[in-house]
Amino acid sequence: MTRPLFAKNGNGWIIFLATIASCYVAFYNNFPLVYSDTGTYLDSGFKGIVPPDRPIFYGLFMRHVSLAETLWLVVLAQAWLTCWLLHRVLGIFIKGIQRNVALIGIIVLITLTTGYSYNVSILLPDIFATIGFLCLLVLLYSKELNKLQIVFVSVIFVFSISMHNSNLPIYFLLFAGLGIHLLWRRRKKKEVQMNPFRLVLASGLFGLTLLLIPAVNYSYDGEFRYSKGSHVFLFNHMIEIGAVKLYLEDNCDKNDYAICQYKDELNWNFMWDYYGPLYKTGGWEKNKEDFDAINRGIMTTPKYWPLLIQKTATYTTKQFFRFETKLQTVEINGPPHLQMERYLPNSTREYLASKQLKKEYDLFMLNRVEGVIVFLSIIICLLALILDRRFKLLHRGLKALISISLVYGAINAMVCANLSTVDDRYQNRWVWLLVVFTVLVFIDLYSKRSEIVEQWKKFHSGGIA
Predict the structure, then answer these.
(1) Average pLDDT, whole number, for the chain?
(2) pLDDT, tens digit (0-9, with 9 covering 90-100), for 270-322
(3) DSSP characters for 241-284?
(4) Dihedral of the CA atoms 65, 113, 413, 382 (nearest 10)?
(5) Distances (CA, A) of 422 to 48, 75, 323, 418
(6) 20 to 30 A from 430, CA-CA: which of 116, 184, 297, 403?
(7) How many angstroms separate the CA atoms of 354 and 113, rounded?
(8) What is the DSSP letter of 66?
(9) Do residues 86 and 435 lie in contact, with contact meaning Cβ atoms separated by under 8 Å?
(10) DSSP 8-class letter at 346
């Protein structure tokens, strides 16, 4: 008999309880967490306008899932999707009631010790970066999905990638790496843990996303494009690393770039200073041709390559270890308060009562705990991979998931830090997954404790070379 999309046994109730626990931060705050960009997403979704610097998909998600009534439905949907996918990931290694106990235990742990609940509880698309990655893991490694569930996961995967522009280069690099790894394993005639046909499916879904984003943009504003603002983000990063200053000093006498007259005024606040050089020269759209030419010139001129390589390595490393949970200070009569009054007036009273708006939320203790537990998880995951090469004790699927997660984290850090800037949000949105895998490592090793004792005895007696 074919399994239903949503299990009719006790699993459904377990996932529901995990969903409620995941929203702890929103409940404690008295309202879902917000960011200034939340207002932009509300405008885009309710007005049907594509923002210049991001896709419209999360705005549409907020509009339709909220039913234009309450934003609580948005965070509950985010939490449910995350918990449902985590339950499927756990099913790769654990079966029966142990799987349900493990899900509840893990959700409670990461809710109390990491930024997991903050990412689930905030009205931003950040959590969909991890939801998309969980979809990929489930597609590649889960053997319990029926056809209907494969379709469901595929739809969520495409939708999640479409939420943020950074996902496109991240998944391009990730799929390239997975493809090379698969070909290498096949050439060496080594066993492959992932389902090759599912990898082809996931790659095809990514290709579909590459068409979907500009097609949806075209349906709303008549332009078949990804983003109107990518040139500004990249230019801002080039300012930050000092490359623009060098390039302008070398080329302003040969090219009549409008920004040349302000080359000594370029600073870290370039994008958001409404009285600064960007807006004095006409703004985002008017500078596109010049900024594209300057960005391209920097990246194709060998003279600047040592600087680019050094800064890329530095920013990637800094970003990988920057994962602190942060809350933005928001004000009454600013974004997103104005947008909520316009589109969701029934939510305004709750929003005004939130601890975030009243500046009553203290993250000091959480960040101290999170720093320790995430750092230990990184060390334990790396140590488990290293030791497994000798002792072969980890579940092979778990070893694969840890490896691909660390690769994903490194690519995420490289893309976000070097196409935008270093920001804790970019790592905080996924790094809690390493805590999940660390728990699975301990569960796996505990289940093999007698075998570990025997291996240890052999090792000390010289039986293992």
Answers:
(1) 92
(2) 988 888 999 999 999 899 999 999 999 999 999 999 999 999 999 999 999 99
(3) TTHHHHHHHHHTTTS--GGGGGTTS--TTTTT-TTSHHHHTTHH
(4) -130
(5) 30, 26, 10, 8
(6) 184
(7) 22
(8) T
(9) no
(10) G
